[in-house]
Specification:
Elements lengths: L11 E4 L7 E5 H11 L1 E2 L2 E2 L9 H15 L3 E6 L6 H13 L3 H8 L3 H7 L3 H19 L3 E3 L4 H10 L5 E3 L4 H4 L4 E7 L4 E6 H8 L3 H11 L12 H11 L2 H4 L11 H8 L9 E2 L4 H10 L4 H18 L4 E2 L1
C-alpha cells in the first residue's frame, strides 16, 4: 500500500516531547492494521474467550492514553465510502484470514469461537472493527472524523486548514495529499518518532508540490501502476528535466497514459470541514465497553484513571480545536 518515495523523502527522528501541545490526525485504518498485525498471542490475533478480536481495542486505548500523557492530542480519521477502498479494507484485516492459516489453527485447537469470527467475510470484519473502534473513541471523549473518501486525504486537509499539525501514518500518500507534516515509525520504548515535512521535501528536491504529485504518478500510486522501471530517483530526474509528467512522456520508450484523473485525486480530494471537540470521557460507558472485550479489571481501572488525569492536565474537557 502507498507510493514508494523512501529514496527522496528524508525523515528526522524527534522526541515525543517535541510534539507537546500539538494535534495529530491519525490515519485510523493504517494504525488498526498495525495493531491487528502486532498485538498477538501464540501467533494469532488477540481474541477474548468469546472469540471477539480485541487487538484494536487494546491498541487504540493505550496508544491514545500514551499520546495524551505526552501532551499530544489525537484526532482519528477514518476512510469513507469509496469503491477503491475495498482493497484497503481487505488489507486491514488480511492478518486475520491470510491463506486461512489462522482459521485452520483455531479449528485444530478446537477454539470454535475464534474460528467462527475468522470465517466472517473481510467486509464484515472490517466494518465490525471500525465500528467498535469508533465506539471506544466516543466513550473516551476522543474526536474522530469520517472522510467522504480517503482518510489520508482528510487528515492532510486538516493540517492545511489548521485543525491538525501532523498526520500519523506509515504511508507517504498523506504528503501527496498535501499534508504539511507526517509522522511514522512511532517508538514508545525509545520515546521518539520520525518526522518529514512537505516544505522540506520540496525544498530539498527543488520541485513544486504539483511536480511532486507528477513524480509519484510516474513511480506508481494506489490509483495507478506507474511506469515500469521508473523509481523515485529516476522520476525526480525526469521531472526536473521536463517540468511535468506530460513533458516526461516525450522521453523515448515511455508510453503516455491518462494522468488528469489521478492528479485530481491528489490535488482536489473529497474532504469535509470537520468540527473537532474533545468531550469528557464517559467512564461508565468506557468501563462497560472494556469489560465486553475482557480487559482485566485492574488494567481497565488503571487505564481509565490515566485517561481522566491526562484530560484534566491538558484541560481538554469540552475543548474545541
Amino acid at each position: 500500500m502507498g507510493v514508494k518515495l523512501g529514496s527522496i523523502v528524508n525523515f528526522k527522528t524527534i522526541s515525543l516531547d517535541e510534539l507537546e501541545n500539538t494535534r495529530v490526525a491519525v490515519d485510523a485504518s493504517n494504525m488498526l492494521f498495525q495493531f491487528l498485525n502486532k498485538i498477538r498471542r501464540h501467533n494469532l490475533p488477540l481474541f477474548n474467550h468469546e472469540g471477539r478480536v480485541v487487538s484494536h481495542i487494546y491498541g487504540v486505548f493505550y496508544r491514545t492514553i500514551n499520546f495524551l500523557e505526552h501532551g499530544i492530542k489525537l484526532i482519528y480519521v477514518f476512510d469513507g465510502a469509496h469503491p477503491r477502498l475495498k482493497e484497503r479494507r481487505e488489507h486491514l484485516v488480511e492478518s486475520l484470514v491470510k491463506e486461512y492459516g489462522y482459521l485452520r489453527k483455531a479449528r485444530e485447537n478446537k477454539n470454535y469461537n475464534v474460528a467462527r469470527t475468522l470465517s466472517l467475510s473481510r467486509e464484515v470484519l472490517y466494518d465490525t472493527i471500525i465500528n467498535e473502534t469508533q465506539k471506544l473513541l466516543t466513550s473516551m471523549g476522543v474526536p474522530w472524523v469520517k472522510s467522504p473518501g480517503e482518510g489520508e486525504a482528510q487528515a492532510a486537509y486538516m493540517t492545511r486548514i489548521g485543525k491538525a499539525d501532523h498526520v500519523l501514518t506509515q504511508d507517504y500518500d498523506a504528503l501527496l495529499f498535501g499534508a504539511r507534516s507526517i509522522l511514522r515509525n512511532l517508538d514508545l520504548t525509545e520515546n521518539n518518532v520520525q518526522c518529514a515535512t512537505l516544505e522540506e521535501v520540496l525544498k530539498l528536491q527543488n520541485i513544486t508540490y504539483e511536480q511532486f504529485v507528477d513524480l509519484a504518478i510516474l513511480v506508481g500510486t494506489d490509483f495507478n501502476s506507474g511506469v515500469k522501471g521508473v523509481g523515485a530517483k529516476r522520476a525526480l530526474k525526469l521531472i526536473r528535466k521536463h517540468g511535468d509528467i506530460r513533458g516526461v512522456f516525450s522521453e523515448p520508450g515511455l508510453k503516455p497514459f491518462e494522468v488528469d484523473g489521478i492528479r485530481e485525486i491528489f490535488l482536489n480530494p473529497d474532504v469535509v470541514e470537520p468540527q473537532i471537540i474533545f468531550n469528557a470521557p464517559n467512564t461508565g460507558s468506557l468501563r462497560r465497553l472494556l469489560e465486553e472485550f475482557s480487559m482485566k479489571p485492574e488494567r481497565k481501572d488503571r487505564g481509565i484513571k490515566r485517561l481522566v488525569r491526562a484530560y484534566k492536565e491538558l484541560q481538554l474537557i469540552q475543548a474545541t480545536l
